[in-house]
Predict the structure.
Amino acid sequence: MHNNITLFNAESHRFILLNESDPSDEDGIPSNQYLILHNGKGTLLDPGGFGVMPQVLNVMLQYIQPQDIEAIVLSHQDPDIVGGLSSWMKLTSAKIYVSRIWRRFLPHYGITHMQRFVDIPDDGCNITLNSGLTLTFVPAHFLHSPGQINVYDPLSKILFSGDVGASLVPLDENADNSDVFAHNFSTHLQFTEGFHKRYMASNRALRHWVQQVRKLDVDIIAPQHGLLYRGQVKDEFLDWLYDLPCGSDLLELD
Ligand SMILES: [Fe+2]
Ligand SMILES: [Fe+2]
């Protein structure tokens, strides 16, 4: 499991992989939680499910106090993202950013104070937070969620890609805690291919996403599950996604 990995560090701006949950924390799929620090304020990206919340908080406290968390971004509506949100909302006064199509479903998680939520429009947008941090919200709809948003941080050139690029890598394949990157795409493929074929809606959705990402200057693609992508592996990953039949493409018609 990886935690406390600084992916980018410059004066007053830092992008951290806070924690990769241990499956035993939640009896579920391991997930990555990220923190962006900017001018002393924090933004949490997909803070995780209910079971992982204490561990994420524990690591986060090494960097910042809850009252200085100004934003929480939910890439989509899944329980491995939203499950711990009501605790985070009690601890912080952060605004919550989520696709406009999911806001009305979230109260079913027992979440109140919906006035703290900010809808992200379907086409994405730029939002500048009180700290001065500008986040670029990039649409990633149907990958897999009908309302998924990615977050691009122009200062670190890191794209938080939610479930796009997710992999489930056996522990012994990447035992070095400081090494969070996939180094060989052809060996990595076995850990990510099945997920993308089954969960991603269609090749059209993938192509649309790849086109958006190629317009950005991206150094690192950081998914919500598994290893991260950069350099040649990142380019090979984008090429592979662009041509991948998946989801409804694979349904056999009579
Ligand atoms: Fe998901
Ligand atoms: Fe996920």
Summary: The chain has one domain: 3-250. The pocket of fe (ii) ion (ligand 1) is lined by residues 76, 78, 144, 163 (CB under 6 Å). The two ends are 45 Å apart (CA to CA). Helices lie at 23-26, 53-60, 79-82, 85-91, 185-188, 193-199, 203-215, 231-242.
